[in-house]
Amino acid sequence: MTDYEHFRVRPESRVDLSKLDPAQTPGCKDKEEAAKRLERDVAALTHLQYLLYAENKRSLLIVLQALDGGGKDGTVLHVFQAFNPQSAYVHQFKVPSTLEASHDFLWRAHAAAPARGQAAIFNRSHYEDVLTVRVHELVPKDVWSKRYDRINEFEKNLTEAGTTIVKFFLHISPEAQLARFKKRLDDPTHQWKISESDYTERKRWDDYMAAYENVLERCSTAHAPWYVVPADKKWYRNLVVGGVIRETLEKMDPKTPAPTVDIERIRKQYHKAVDRA
Ligand code: AMP
Ligand code: MG
């Protein structure tokens, strides 16, 4: 049992998001405690991601999903500062381009998947194809309803090739979302983020929750688990995401490769004179 196990969705369990309080902060008393713990997690992550890169055998894929204002960008900023841009990247999933839309829905996700030694963050993901696409009926039901199985197979394929996958749904309340939109309105440096659809999408809240519940029920697998993160409090959200990624990397236990040279010989041959000097 790890610290964040209770946020993991058990494979094939029923999920009722209305019963999960987005404002809860179990196991952490306040913002100050969270800041201290996150600092430690980020330091540990910095080392772990270095080991993953040095090992150069496996990879890590982190999926971030949320409604607008759910905190995907903030999570990237606060948690992923631990990662070195040399071996990690964020990939954003926007409305598919003409090229992307002319392929199967997993094509762009596969192309963006991390290579050996890398960590990738999907800011939105292939799950949009059973979320936005389903809610807006962009394809008929008999098309999107087959995608859950395709997604599970795709993720299985990645894990068998050495990618560890961890997925986060940042769960916010409609009230917290509206408060964040209001803050954007009042901050001239954030006004650019506002779109009319942020507000009109709120009318479809229940449809989105139903779509997310289906994703969580059908696609939280042993090999690629979903975590539902209470995300009304940003500090708690960061703590949980950082903590789960730390636990995930610790379990992967990446190791630096053995040296390719005889260290003692190199030491004797090239460092003696320097050491005497
Ligand atoms: P943002 O994350 O705010 O920059 O917005 C990206 C937008 O692209 C969101 O409105 C997503 O719902 C939309 N989007 C992402 N993937 C898809 C997709 N496969 N089909 C339709 N819309 C998508
Ligand atoms: Mg947006």
Compact overview of the structure:
The protein is an alpha/beta fold and 277 residues long.
CATH class: Alpha Beta
CATH level-3 fold name: Rossmann fold
Whole-number average pLDDT? 96
First-to-last CA distance? 54 Å
The name of the CATH superfamily reads: P-loop containing nucleotide triphosphate hydrolases
By CATH, the architecture is named: 3-Layer(aba) Sandwich
Helix segment tally = 12
User: What series of H and E elements makes up the topology?
Assistant: HEHEHHEHHHEHHHEHH
- Number of domains as seen in the coordinates: 1
Strand content: 5-15%
Question: Could you say which small molecules are bound to this protein?
Answer: adenosine monophosphate, magnesium ion
